[in-house]
Design a protein that fits this description.
Elements lengths: L4 E10 L9 H5 L6 H12 L6 E9 L4 E5 L4 H9 L14 E4 H11 L8 H15 L1 E4 L1
Parallel strand pairs: 4-5
Antiparallel strand pairs: 1-2, 2-3
Amino acid sequence: MAKKIRIVLTLQLPAGKATPAPPVGTALGPHGINIVEFTKSYNEKTADKAGQVIPAQITIFEDRSFTFVLKTPPAADLLRKAAGIEKGASTTKRETVGRVSKDQVREIATIKMTDLNANSPEAAAKQIEGTARSMGIEVVG
C-alpha cells in the first residue's frame, strides 16, 4: 500500500550549503522530519553544483518519512549569471540593468526545459525572454 502524503514543499537552497538553520529548519520542523538527515542528503546530491540555487521539492509522508526531487535552478538565477548582474531592476519598464544574447536565452531554455510547461525549445525560450524582460534585462540579437 502506498504511503499517505502529508505535504509537498519546495525550498530553494544554495547547492551543497544547506544547514538546519532557517529557512530549512522553520519549513521542515513543524512536519516532524529529520532536518539533519535532509540537509546532509541534499548537500551530497548538490555538491557538484556549488554556487547555484537548486530547488528541492520535498514530499513528506504521514509516517514522517520523506523523499525529495531536485529541480533545475530558477530562470532568474540563470539570467543574472548570464548577464553578470547582482540583481534585477527595481523599475523594470524604465531601467535596464543588463543584456543577454538570444543564444544565452536558448541555452538557459534548454537547461530549464524539463521544468517548464513548454512544448518546444522555441516556446521555452519565449518564457525565458519574458522572465528577462520582467527583471529589466534586455535580450539582444
